[in-house]
Every structure is written in C-alpha cells, then in structure tokens.
Amino acid sequence: MGVIVGPRVIDAGASLLSVLVSPVAVAAGYPSPAQDYFEGRLDLNAHLIKDVTSTYVVRVSGESMAGAGISDGDELIVNRALEPVDGSVVVAVLDGELTVKRLRITPTGVVLQAENPAYPDIVVPSLSDLLVWGVVTRCLHVV
Amino acid sequence: MGAPAAMRQLPQIAHVDVNCFYASAERAFNPALEGRPVVVLSNNDGCAVTRSPEAKRLGIAMGDPWFKLAPRAKEWGLVALSSNYELYGDISARVMELLGRYSAWLEVYSIDEAFLGVKGTPEELLTLGRAMKTTVRRNVGVPVCVGIAPTKTLAKLANKWAKNNPAFDGVCHWDAVPATDRETLMRRLSVIEIWGVATRLTKRLNALGIHSILDLSRADPVMIRDRFSVVMMRTVLELQGTPCISMEEERIGRDQLIFSRSFATPITTAAGIRQVMSVYGQQASARLAKHGLQAKVLTAFAGTSHFNPNDTSYPTVSVALPMPTADPVILTKAAHALLPRIVDGIRYARAGIMVTDLRPSGNQAPLSLFENPHEERHIGTLLEDVTKKYGRGSIGLGHGGIRGGPDWTMKRDMLSPRYTTHWDELPLVKAA
Q1: Which CATH architecture best describes the domain B5-17+109-239?
Q2: Which of residues 140-159 of B touch A (CB under 8 A)?
Q3: Using CB atoms within 10 A as the burial measure, which of A18, A104, A139, B153 is most buried?
Q4: Which helix (H) or strand (E) segment is B389 a member of?
C-alpha cells in the first residue's frame, strides 16, 4: 500500500502517542518510491535450496570431478527428491561409500563418469543395480 | 469391495513410523552400515536402545548393556554407535514435514512416529500409504512402514503387521485384509502387544480369560470399564473399529517428552505461537525437573487443521541445545526457533514441542550460586515452586548445567558426525 503524503492539520490536543499510532502519521518524512517493490534482501537459502526437507549438503573429497567444476573440499547441495537423468551429477552409493559422479544412461548401459581423465569410468550393469543417493544441484566453491 | 461409497469414505488413520529409527538415520549417511548389525547405545554408551534387524537376529535384546556386547562385537561384526540426537532430531523433523504434505491432519506422536488422518477408497489408501513410504525413503533417506485402519489402535497394529510380514511390503491397510486373516493375526498376538497394555494389566486380563488381542476385541466394553478403566475400554472399542483415542496429550516415552495440543481457536500469528511455545517451554522444564532429567535436543512444531485443507503448513524445527538443560528460559528460547517459519495469516490449529536426548540432571550447583537473577519474574516463581516441591538442584537457571554439573560431558566414544547440522561434520563424498 502506498502512503499518501500531504499537508495535514495536526490536532493540537492530540497526544503524542495518538499521533504516533495514527496510520497517516507514518508518512512523516519522504516516502521511498521503492518501498512498494522491496520484498527483502536476497535470500541465499531460498535461491540455492528448493526443497529444504529433501536437501542435504555434503563435502567433496578428491579431484575426480574437477572437469565439472567440483574440487576437493567443495560443498555440494544434494536434492534427494529429484529424479536422476542422463547427464545428472549424482551422489551414488558404491561399495558402501558415497561417491560423486556424472550419470550417463546410454542404450548400451549405465556409466558413472569421472570428469577428470586421470580417473576411470565405472560401468554399472543396469540402472536397478545403481543406488543413487541424491542429485547434485549446486557446488559451493571457495575462489 | 461391496461397501457403499459413503462407508468407504469414512476417515481412516494412517500410522507411520521409521524402522529402527536411530540405526536407520545413521545408515542414511553411512551406507557401509547397510546389512551389518548395528546398535545405537543409550547415553553414556550404556545399553542398546536401537537394534537393526541384523542385530536382533544375533539375539541382542533391547537394553543389553554395552560392556556385555563389546567383547563379542568384533566376532559378530557388530557396529555400536553413541546416540547422535542432533542428527535424529533433524531427520525426524524432515520426516514429519514430508508426511505433512500427505494429510492436512498430522499428529506427531513421537520422534519417529506420526498419525495422519486420511480418506479414500481402499485402493486409494493403499496407494497413498505406498507413496508415503517411497517418498520418505527417497527424499529423507530412512525406511518407514505404514498401517492404515479405522482407529489409532488398529493402525498401530496394522503397522506392526506390515513390519513383520514381508508380504505387505511395508504398507498394511486393515480393511483391505480379509477378515479371516485379521482374526488369525489377532488370535496369535498376546494382549501385551497392544498399544498401552502393560505387563501388570496383561496378568489381570489373563485372569479373566482374555489372552489374545482377539479375546480383548470381543470383550464387553462396559465390563472392561468397570473392571479396569475407561482407558482400557477405549482400547476395546478401538479394536472393534470405533475411534476413541482422539487428541494428543502430554506423553513421556523411553527417551523423549512431548507436549502438544490442539487449540480451541486457531492461532494465526507468530506472536500467538510464541506465547504457546513459551508455555510449553516452561511445562517441559517443570516436567523434566520432576523426573530429574535434562534435555539436549528440542523439536518444535506447529500445524494447520484438517478442516482447512487449502492452507496447510507443518513447520518443524529441531534445535541442539548448548548443553543439557531443564532451564525454562533456554528451552523457551529454543522453541522460539520455530517462529521464523510461522506464516502470519495461516490458521495453526496445533503446536507442540518434543525434548529428546534426555539424561539425569546430575549434581547441579544450588541456585544461590547464580548472580544474575532472570529478568522474567514468572520464571523465578516457577523455579521456586519446582525447587520447593522437588528439592534444591532439581532445576537450575542459565549456564548452571555447565558450571555446576560435570555430568553432562557424557561418554560418547562412538558418536557419528552431526551430518546435517554442522558445516565441519558434513557427510564426505568421494571424488576418486
């Protein structure tokens, strides 16, 4: 709601308090033309996490995903509610450990790809053999 | 099913709980524990309070002391973990938030179980139950089972059945099971398996020739009321399919204390919820003091009414307290962490708090040691009353727990990381 400013007769008999609580009295001073549009500062939580209930943050250990911009020590935002698709960066369970890889679903099979030539890809017999823990949506990287 | 549409649409109760909750919460972040026997130990690494199915199969009983299990742990491949209540509190809050999406009527019953009001045909209800099971497992990472029935008591029974009989695949809808099968189950189970029937009552029931759950369900409710209590009569009626256990009350469980209530008039402002949280904070404080306990984790929640399915909201927050405490000020402040999640204008019909990670108060310093009397007068009065009633040291203010009680530095040698609440304890993912 905009605030209407204009000359106003102040009742000399009114107490200070009643002036303060009067809605029109709020107009004292110059109204910011922007106040109608101000909805609060940027909220990183809202920006980075779409589904708080289903989202976890994990820490990367190793350099096998360097090509995807994911480095050792980075924090990844992982949404477990998302369906992994071909090309998703996923956290998968491999030999009892959480591992981050690029998921490739091809007609010939499922591959967990490293994004670093120094590391081998892992071929998974079928999608049902693969336990995807969550889909990575963001990487928090210190520059 | 030949039942008329009106009958099929009667509201039903879904009871959802997490399988071996503490062990499952650990497994969600440490997949290496999958398939291995796992026990979670009570405070001070005392005894087993949660056992994975593999641990149960080894013959480990609830409450087995760790010093007896430890010598054989290696041979069994047994993994023992200290209670990580911060983790469990957060996972619990996530499960409850997620369940809140499935019903406008959600009642958090304990850290790992909830009742939901649900409606639909038997097919729809089964689909709903399966969706809840799949979604909680996928989105949060812990397995749940679901029992759906006309009453809370039967829903709990259905859930137990779903857990123990693999044919249900974790979801049992009571009305969808043939009556003869239900009778067989109820005939097999002793009355002690029923929610709210203790050993002492079991003996008295047995003396009347009531041994199985089926016997109890066929008993005359009036006779039961006269010989036992209204509570037991309600159980009988619930077994017969008449819902009688309606609203939540204060409950104390093995390791948790819950305060929750429905409001006569919905609360629509954060200021209103603040007041309610303050009352609960103080009630929890007094109750903890009465039992000589302190809490380390507090969960606060609120929810909209099931009569208002348009504007549903189930904010939940779990707070790790700076130290174990029964202090009304600290508990109240912690409960206020819920307030930023409260949306003004939404009609909240219930709210509550749950305190967990309970442990004995230990030797607290006397109140007189504290130089800073708290500014809130009524807190002082409360403290006085509690002290008068339960003796000095039963309750303390401020950082009393730290200065006075060395007891809070507990033995937790096998504590897993607090994966979801501390930046320096995040789960590690390998990029190798």
Answers
A1: Orthogonal Bundle (1.10)
A2: 140-141
A3: B153
A4: helix B377-390
